[in-house]
Amino acid sequence: MMKTIHDSSLDEWFLNRTSTSQTAYKQAVGAAVNTVQTQFSSLEKPMSGVQADFLSSLLREDTICPEEGLHLDTVLYEVGQKVLGHSVAVHHPACVAHLHCPPLIPALAGEVMVSATNQSMDSWDQSPAATLLEERMIQWLSRTFGLSPQGDGVFTSGGTQSNFMGLLLARDHYAWTRFGWNVQKRGLPPEAREMRILCSEAAHFTVKQSAALLGLGEDAVVTVKTDERHRIHLDDLDQQLSQLYGDGLHPFAIVATAGTTDFGSIDPLPELVSRAHALGLWLHVDAAYGGALILSNSYKERLQGIEAAHSITVDFHKLFYQPISCGAFLVNDVKHFNRIKQNADYLNSTEDEELGIPNLVGKSIQTTRRFDALKLYISLRTLGRAQFASMIEKTINTATATAQMIAKDQRLEVINPVPELNAVVFRFIPEMNHPDMPYSKWQDQINHEIRHALLASGDVVLANTKVNGNVCLKLTLLNPRTTLEDTHAILDRVKKTGKRRELQKGEWNQHASNIGSASYHAELL
Ligand SMILES: *Cc1c(COP(=O)(O)O)cnc(C)c1O
């Protein structure tokens, strides 16, 4: 061991083997835990309902970096009051807007280790055991999703990055195999303007975003109609494909969605696999939302076909209940990463690679990267597959029963009577007409207002979406602790709020310009 002279002056700021440092660490993390606990023990609503202008006055720019620092306890207390107190409580059963999950407690313990050890996943000398554990996790994922033994992948910041990587590899693979063109070296091929990606109109917006970032442009994405269950319409797909080939264009990838954001619909994967294989297209499956079904013996057959995809997106910060961020990108053959690989002499030199030293930087578009695999590892080991599966199944059952409840209600209309996953889309039905508005517009408006009023009250956090141009409300029931009693109470609030608004319609014109303001909501509630 090397002898060093210990400079103790910074022990209170950095972890090391001294007791000063360890005490400081325990106190700091303990104080943060206490602040969180205080927050949770007084938590009644998913949102404080505070208005943006008030919050904005609480958080002042000129106090951020004082000349002399404050005591950590003071800072944490303040953060508890001003920030945590006005954060959305994703753990609350009435927080049901987005694909935004309550994180598992074992994963939170994992986060402590991830941050304290601060491994960086780009090179072996920055993350030896972490590199190997991430590799094992990827092997487990590959096997679980049924990929071939050449399957590989990498942890990502989430679905946006994973979808981008899928289309990046698809683009480069096509340019190379079809035109003998190396995009990494030469940039886009002359045929780039003719390259096309197909996905359903319910696919995630990041498919278009990726096409734009990849230099192909959003117009390179051809959207296919959906069927009555919001899945890609195969006849329309076939028609669009023959049109593209007829026009001399170059379709090169199909993006299938396994769990659409609004309805949780799963595209017919086996049918897409057979088309992709017959036509030599890359099949990317965006399973950001639905990928977790693979853990459930009752539901995993819905993902059948995914094993034949070229690449897969799976998010762990959704139905795997991980703290943000945590996702993975999987590919059916490790060799595809060669199209984007970089060798940096300081990270993964060719000499190191010849020695067989594993470095994950070549598989990622990130360089410095968090050890997010650890929290998922800890969660899977602690809960086990069966517990994960039962939580996921529970959310699907709650969603199904909630949809049935809505279907029976005269004042509500369910848009997806049989939820494919755990999202339920519905609308309030106003009974009275509006004096100066067509009924459909009035219905849109009242549904919009219901969401805003509930948000401003802080009692329920619901989402809005549009279906065939109509404003709808959405419950995304990711939280296994949200029960049927909770959804019943939420629907009650929706109806009460809608009815109250209906009764005020005579005064509508007077108030229309005040929507969103505090006084308007105070009046409403
Ligand atoms: C959430 C989601 C994404 C985006 O993933 P992020 O983790 O938010 O980057 C992409 N596709 C689908 C289907 C999603 O649900």
TrEMBL record:
One matching Pfam family: Pyridoxal_deC
Cofactor list: pyridoxal 5'-phosphate
A GO biological process held by the record: carboxylic acid metabolic process
CDD domains: DOPA_deC_like
Keywords of the record: Decarboxylase, Lyase, Pyridoxal phosphate
Family statement drawn from the similarity comment of this UniProt entry: Belongs to the group II decarboxylase family.
The protein's name: L-2,4-diaminobutyrate decarboxylase
UniProt source species: Marininema mesophilum
